[in-house]
Amino acid sequence: MSDVKLCPGRRRPAAGRRYNAPMTTFLAGIDFNAPSHEVARLLIGVTVLVDGVGGRIVETEAYDREDPASHTYNGPTARNASMFGPPAHAYVYRSYGIHWCLNFVCREEGHGAGVLIRAIEPTHGIDVMRERRGLDDPRLLCSGPGRVCQALGITREHNGEALWLPPFDLLPRAAAPDVAIVSGPRIGISKAMETPWRFGVARSPFLSKPFRA
């Protein structure tokens, strides 16, 4: 059974509104048609803004249709429809019924891959983030996927939105960032726990959890 038959046409996710926008897959120097683990690594150092609030991405996780830990492993559902949508769009879901989580869709439409934004270093709109999060320490504002969404004001309403259109803005990382990018097992999953598809800036104080030495 093909993915195209499972996810026909230009369907919309529950809250998506921009599938009829002019398409692009190349943003911030990254081709979002690439495999998710490649995109996840390249996103480290990219600045993500939502209505002008955000910062540099310091931690990501990759997920793919062939990956038992992925939401798309068992095929399309109403919840994961956006992850089967076109690349360079947002997939937003609620974790444990509490926290929103932001993912960037990768690969061709119908494949079902994406990158979870686990942590960012706040650089834009820090006062807004502090108000939304109810704390002052910049290290704790966006150190975890739920915190990222709360600080950036991301909800289900952003699900299916194109990443090249407002309220999103992705800015390329420095040409030669002076940081070491490391990888390791993903966090909080019960399957494919050994897959080293978590990426981040080594020793960054803004990580959700330090990488093992």
Automatic annotation (TrEMBL):
Entry EC number(s): 3.2.2.-
Listed SUPFAM superfamilies: FMT C-terminal domain-like
Pfam families tied to this protein: Pur_DNA_glyco (PF02245)
Gene3D superfamilies: Methylpurine-DNA glycosylase (MPG)
Record keyword Transmembrane helix present: no
GO BP term, pick one: base-excision repair
Keywords (A to Z) from UniProt: DNA damage, DNA repair, Hydrolase
Single GO molecular function: DNA binding
Family, as annotated: Belongs to the DNA glycosylase MPG family.
Entries under PANTHER family matching the protein: DNA-3-METHYLADENINE GLYCOSYLASE
Protein name: Putative 3-methyladenine DNA glycosylase
